Amino acid sequence: xxxxxxxxxxxxxxxxxxxxxxxxxxxxxxxxxxxxxxxxxxxxxxxxxxxxxxxxxxxxxxxxxxxxxxxxxxxxxxxxxxxxxxxxxxxxxxxxxxxxxxxxxxxxxxxxxxxxxxxxxxxxxxxxxxxxxxxxxxxxxxxxxxxxxxxxxxxxxxxxxxxxxxxxxxxxxxxxxxxxxxxxxxxxxxxxxxxxx
Amino acid sequence: xxxxxxxxxxxxxxxxxxxxxxxxxxxxxxxxxxxxxxxxxxxxxxxxxxxxxxxxxxxxxxxxxxxxxxxxxxxxxxxxxxxxxxxxxxxxxxxxxxxxxxxxxxxxxxxxxxxxxxxxxxxxxxxxxxxxxxxxxxxxxxxxxxxxxxxxxxxxxxxxxxxxxxxxxxxxxxxxxxxxxxxxxxxxxxxxxxxxx
Lengths: 197, 197
What we know:
The structure is a homodimer. By secondary structure, the first copy, chain A, is an alpha+beta fold. Chain A is built from 7 helices and 4 strands.
């Protein structure tokens, strides 16, 4: 199973983190992002979005970190990480949307601006970061995990860009419930940290 | 089953559209958005995000249009709309992420600015709209449906804000494959249009 990967990408890291938690072997294919390899002919055929991660598993080719988590959990991770029962699955799904929306346009965007010089509205992404971190912190006040009372792909989808939020000028120091949740996740067997962190 | 609803919301419409396609009865509870009812104590208890739609089905309470689609499809819609097999489910999931990310921050945001006077970066949301509509149009060049060769919740998640994109100054006239796909969707038994359209 091949993962087209960029070490600096939190969206790639979430796939590697989850694969490690379920002990699924990944063949890592580093993509030369600075040279624009992700927008070259070969990778655009695999993902017209021009983004990574891309997962290749036999004939299956998938883009989008959240979709890849669903695939890995469904195929290799099992019920624990991605429940099949409707209300439990939808509970996890709520957080996959948060990863694609509020995290992407909050902490992830702040980091793109501050660390990589991407042009975007920093004040807006910082305000979005504060909003979503506050919501998550409140949510975790009486819960150990984001969804269904156990570690799931919800946690794997949300954790990466929070764990490197400081690179975008976003501090999680005041969010005590988030910090406790991160520690719990970091103690799971198979946990790996973001490269460079 | 109760849906806390706003007629003008495409995210509420997607739930009503899908419920109609699978003939699941919804008890519509109109929310007084102008009076800020969605940010009042009662609804914040159901959804701390302060957003609608909210679905209530017995003890199950869900926020987020995509999560509600997953719930309804899993519980009432069946395999056809939300396949359980890993690579098919992940194919649909890719589009649920597009709904939460690129559609939300493209056509949806352009409409919020142009129709409702929300302050945001119009040039950015228009550029994002062009990008995602081009990607979707290319994707549909040789396909009838967004995922797995049949109508699924992927189509229900993406269609609403494209069908009202003109309200945000985004024309779909040039995207012939998107227009053909919209017509196919509009011919499905049980299809209902966005209120006011």
